[in-house]
Amino acid sequence: MAPLFSIAATTTATTTSMSGHGGGAPPGLRAQQWSLRGHRYAVLLITFVAYACYHASRKPTGIVKSVLSKGWSPFNGAHGTSKLGEIDVAFLACYAIGMYVAGHLGDRMDLRLFLATGMLGSGIFVGLFGMGSFWNVHGFWYYLLMQMMAGFFEATGWPSVVAVIGNWFGKHKRGLIMGVWNAHTSVGNICGSLLAAAVLDYGWGWSFLAPAALVILGGLFVYFFLAPYPEDVGFSFVRSADADADAEEPQLSDEEAQQNTGFPREASVSIGLLQACMIPGVIPFALCLFFAKLVAYTFLYWLPFYLTQTEIGGKYISVKSAGNLSTLFDVGGIFGGIIAGYISDKLNARALTAATFIYAAIPSMLLYRYYGSVSMNVNIGLMMVTGLLVNGPYALITTAVSADLGTHNSLRGDSRALATVTSIIDGTGSVGAALGPLLTGFISTRGWNGVFIMLVLGAFIAGLLLTRLIIAEIAEKRSRHLSSERQNPEATVVQPLLEPLLEEETLAATVPEPLLEEERLTTTVSQPLPEEEEERLAAAERRLAAIEQRLAAAQHRLAATVFHHLPEEERLETTVSQPHVKEER
Q1: Under a CB-based contact definition with an 8 Å cutoff, are residues 155 and 101 in contact?
Q2: Which tens digits make up the pLDDT trace of 475-530?
Q3: DSSP 261
Q4: Residue 448's closest CA among 294, 293, 298?
Q5: Whole-prediction pTM value?
């Protein structure tokens, strides 16, 4: 542990002079070991595993709440439920504060070392929380301090992984790619819940030690194999909007690969928090995420406890069963993130997509509250639908939206603000994430209806905060549509004129090409036609003549209509230079 922290400290001092980037390939990789596409898949996998480990380490407190509230001091007293809420808010408050600092540092440090250090520190303090069970610690201050330190270290995760993905992928299909990739949140929650519930029978301390070991192993995996920048492994290409579409991979000779050990990059300028806040859309999305995360994290921390306190089909379920059942909320969340990302790519409307999901979550939560107790099947179905609608916009805003704004056009030159923008948006959301579980700890003592009213109000306000951005997106789409029509006025004018001719063209296609006069005479002389065929041929010729007349009339109408749509100056010039147009009119 100590050598890694010393490496991180050395890197902090040296990478500042390199404009916020690391230098060289990670220990487990070499330059251009795979193709560009292969390295991108590796980055997706490594960051997916890393953040899944982070979320797995956050689930134990939700799983063991029932055990602690029934038999472990200081959480088993009259105010035990409130104290459980307080350690949740301590973790999330430190996580939110640390997020702003971590995002600012992430744009200036080697992201690989920064992320690996955060994972190791998080694993240590999550494990120390569980060790309180074996050391027979009953002081509230101990558990509060462990949660606070874990929150600070976990804050390094999200800005780092989003920045890494933004470095490797452009904006093309970013919503879909990040929607699939963001399933790590739900996968981590599921794995953490299953792992914590599986070892709960051996003592609640093991429910913390097992996820802690997992996140430490994930940190070592990141340290040895993550390349946060394409330049770290020899790919010096420009990350643009189309960069992730079959990009041409630069080739390096063996000599260049040996000489290019430092992998120098173009200098990039990291911006401050105030400058990042001025990027259009950052503040509205950050405030929206405040309430969206309030809803999502209330489910994350309190759903297992809620399931043990609520009859389902006339029965109460065990703590272990509640932990396993709560994973289905995250299963729905996986599909929610993917669907929201895909729709936002198709519509090119992030705010509209997010708000639609948020508003749809309101009736879903109410249905779950009032009809989730009917039977186990109904509970599962409504839980998954609610997870889909709650996690969809949360995933979209924290991934694709943050990456879009971190590479916004207002950032001139080579300025990169991915980690900073991500920290502002997710840090603000984390304040709401801290507030939701805290309020739940107090409100739930008076009944769960009040908790769901809080969740409904939070979702409604989150949707309202995106109203201006939705209006702007719709107005932009309308302006693009109108501008495309202005650029092609002939297409708008010609289409109605050509429609009456479709039937005539179809009829003409069924008539054989008219024979030349000589060919018709030759055919008539050599092979006399029956009277019926002669009549058919004559009728076909008459129809062709009528079609030719109509086509000529349509051409005159088309010329007159186009002339009428010309500006006055061009119309005068055309009239002077081509007087025959006036006669045709």
Answers
A1: yes
A2: 988 888 777 766 665 555 445 544 554 444 444 444 444 444 444 444 444 455 56
A3: S
A4: 298
A5: 0.64
